[in-house]
């Protein structure tokens, strides 16, 4: 009988992830293996993969081990690496709490974007402290077909271009990454959010995620949208001295984002584990040949 690799499947506002627990970092998760696992027809299926590793066992996280026992080694569905995943880190914390690796309450999770604190209870929504946004200077444009829009460059650990549009349908089918300019704005590629207003402090978005395509949600994207909307609305907390809260509707649900006057951002939303099982290691080996 061939070796089995444990996995779980989870999602946050329908941004879905294959979860691979590997505390001692012994599983060879090459980009091809990640892409095979995330394949929705021939594999398990997911927008991305959460590789669950002890920080002390991962070269990229050893420095954070004193602060955070667990490292979210995040991979996009195409196998590429990303610095951060806002929905992923909430699902990651849900997993740790569910299997008893951590108690309910505030959990520190190491990510490539630094240590994040996630508040997780037995049931209900999960809140993550996302840290501060960076707003690189310079004009950015994104396009779909013949149409272009100015976009706000917002970095949430990973890169985002946020474009306010009149209608979310204008983003088209989003089968391919929306072109952007200037190329130097995003040397590593970008996640692109298209946003419409729904009311005061309330917006809706669609997203094309780098390394995954159009997804039903993006947590870092929703934070980038809230930050861009607050600047556009004259509600920058650093200027007003008060919190700015935005409800962000995504195709897969709703996220609530609050930015404080000190720039710290919190995101709240659901995080659900839906299944667990075993991967046939022989299938995986064949799939990546
Ligand atoms: N879905 C994520 C973001 C995942 C990474 C992104 N595709 C990138 O390449 O930066 C989220 O919830 O933040």
From TrEMBL:
<comment type="pathway">
    <text>Amino-acid biosynthesis; L-lysine biosynthesis via DAP pathway; DL-2,6-diaminopimelate from LL-2,6-diaminopimelate: step 1/1.</text>
</comment>
<feature type="binding site">
    <location>
        <position position="76"/>
    </location>
    <ligand>
        <name>substrate</name>
    </ligand>
</feature>
<feature type="site" description="Could be important to modulate the pK values of the two catalytic cysteine residues">
    <location>
        <position position="160"/>
    </location>
</feature>
<feature type="active site">
    <location>
        <position position="85"/>
    </location>
</feature>
<feature type="binding site">
    <location>
        <begin position="219"/>
        <end position="220"/>
    </location>
    <ligand>
        <name>substrate</name>
    </ligand>
</feature>
<feature type="binding site">
    <location>
        <position position="15"/>
    </location>
    <ligand>
        <name>substrate</name>
    </ligand>
</feature>
<feature type="binding site">
    <location>
        <position position="158"/>
    </location>
    <ligand>
        <name>substrate</name>
    </ligand>
</feature>
<protein>
    <recommendedName>
        <fullName>Diaminopimelate epimerase</fullName>
        <ecNumber>5.1.1.7</ecNumber>
    </recommendedName>
</protein>
<feature type="binding site">
    <location>
        <begin position="86"/>
        <end position="87"/>
    </location>
    <ligand>
        <name>substrate</name>
    </ligand>
</feature>
<comment type="function">
    <text>Catalyzes the stereoinversion of LL-2,6-diaminopimelate (L,L-DAP) to meso-diaminopimelate (meso-DAP), a precursor of L-lysine and an essential component of the bacterial peptidoglycan.</text>
</comment>
<keyword id="KW-0028">Amino-acid biosynthesis</keyword>
<comment type="subunit">
    <text>Homodimer.</text>
</comment>
<feature type="binding site">
    <location>
        <position position="191"/>
    </location>
    <ligand>
        <name>substrate</name>
    </ligand>
</feature>
<comment type="similarity">
    <text>Belongs to the diaminopimelate epimerase family.</text>
</comment>
<keyword id="KW-0457">Lysine biosynthesis</keyword>
<feature type="active site" description="Proton acceptor">
    <location>
        <position position="218"/>
    </location>
</feature>
<dbReference type="InterPro" id="IPR018510">
    <property type="entry name" value="DAP_epimerase_AS"/>
</dbReference>
<keyword id="KW-0413">Isomerase</keyword>
<dbReference type="GO" id="GO:0008837">
    <property type="term" value="F:diaminopimelate epimerase activity"/>
</dbReference>
<dbReference type="InterPro" id="IPR001653">
    <property type="entry name" value="DAP_epimerase_DapF"/>
</dbReference>
<feature type="binding site">
    <location>
        <begin position="209"/>
        <end position="210"/>
    </location>
    <ligand>
        <name>substrate</name>
    </ligand>
</feature>
<dbReference type="Pfam" id="PF01678">
    <property type="entry name" value="DAP_epimerase"/>
</dbReference>
<feature type="site" description="Could be important to modulate the pK values of the two catalytic cysteine residues">
    <location>
        <position position="209"/>
    </location>
</feature>
<keyword id="KW-0963">Cytoplasm</keyword>
<feature type="active site" description="Proton donor">
    <location>
        <position position="85"/>
    </location>
</feature>
